[in-house]
Amino acid sequence: MKHFKFINKLIVLTVITSSIFTTIAKADEVSNNDNATFLNAVYEKGEYAQNTDDTLYASVNASDFLVLRTDSNAKAEEITRLPYGYNLTVLGAKNGWVQVKNDDDMIGYVNGKYLDFHFGTKPENKVETVTANSKAQSIVDYAQKYIGTPYLWGGTNLNVGVDCSGLVYSSYKAYGITLNRTSRSMFNQGVAVKKSDLQTGDLVFFNTSGAGISHVGMYVGNNNFIEAADSGVKLTSLSSPYATRTYVGAKRIILD
C-alpha cells in the first residue's frame, strides 16, 4: 500500500500494468495539505491507470466529518456527512475537489485537502451501531447547526436556504433516511404519536393555511421544535399561540 500524505518534493508511483512494472516520477511539489492538487495532476497527465492491481482510494482525515456534495464547490447541496477515517472509492478530480463513492453508492464531491490517498484494496468501513434515540438526537443536533439559515421556498440546501419540509428532508437525509419532500406527504409517513409523548426527532405538523397540513418542524425537546419559518430556521415553543392554534399532530420516523 502506498499513500501520499507525507510526500513533498518527489512522487514516485509504481504502477503494475499487464505484469510490467513502470515507475513514474513527478517533480511537482505536493505539500501535506495539497493532496487534491496532486490528484488533479495525475489525472490531467494521464498517469493514473485504474485497474485491479492499481486501485486508488481515499480516507477522510477531517477532524470531525467531511461533507459529500453534489458538485465541486462549497455551496453545492449536501448529500451526506462522512466521519473521520471513512474509506471512499475515488472516481475523479476537479478543481481541487475529488469525486468519490461511499459504501451506499452515493456519488459526489469532497474537498480534496481533507483526504489521504492510497493505492491498494480499499479497507471495509466499520459499521457503527446507533440506537434509534441517539440517531434522532444526532439529526436534531445537525439541524440546529443551521439555525439562522434563510427561508427559501422549495430550498433544500442548508447552507443557502430551505423551506419547512426542506429543513426536515435534508436533516434526515444527512443520516441516510429519505423522507417525502412536502409537509403534506411527510404526514403520510411514520407512526402517529400523541403530543404528550413527543420524543426528540419526531415530526410536528401544522395547518397554517386553513387548508390542511401546510407546515412541518422537528421536535427538539423541552417543548420546543425547530422550523424553517419566514424569518429563517429557528426554535419555537409548542406552547406559543401560533403553534397551539395550528398544531395538527406528530409522526415518529425513527422507531425503537
* Reported CATH architecture of the largest domain: Alpha-Beta Complex
Distance from first to last alpha carbon = 42 Å
The first-level CATH class of the largest domain is given as: Alpha Beta
Beta strand count:
18
Q: Widest sheet: strand order?
A: 1-10-4-7-8-9
Features:
single chain, alpha+beta, six-stranded antiparallel sheet, endopeptidase fold (from Nostoc punctiforme), 2 domains, elongated, disordered N terminus, SH3 type barrels, 256 residues
Describe the protein's architecture and organization.
With 256 residues, this protein is α+β, with helices and mostly antiparallel strands. The protein folds into 2 domains: 2-119, SH3 type barrels, CATH 2.30.30; 132-252, endopeptidase domain like (from Nostoc punctiforme) (endopeptidase fold (from Nostoc punctiforme), Alpha-Beta Complex). It is 17% helix and 36% strand. The protein has 5 helices and 18 strands. A 6-stranded antiparallel sheet has the order 1-10-4-7-8-9. It has a 6-stranded antiparallel sheet with strand order 13-18-14-15-16-17. Strand 7 and strand 8 (97-101) form a beta hairpin. Helix 2 crosses helix 3. The relative contact order is 0.12. The model is unreliable at 1-33 and 45-52 (pLDDT under 50).
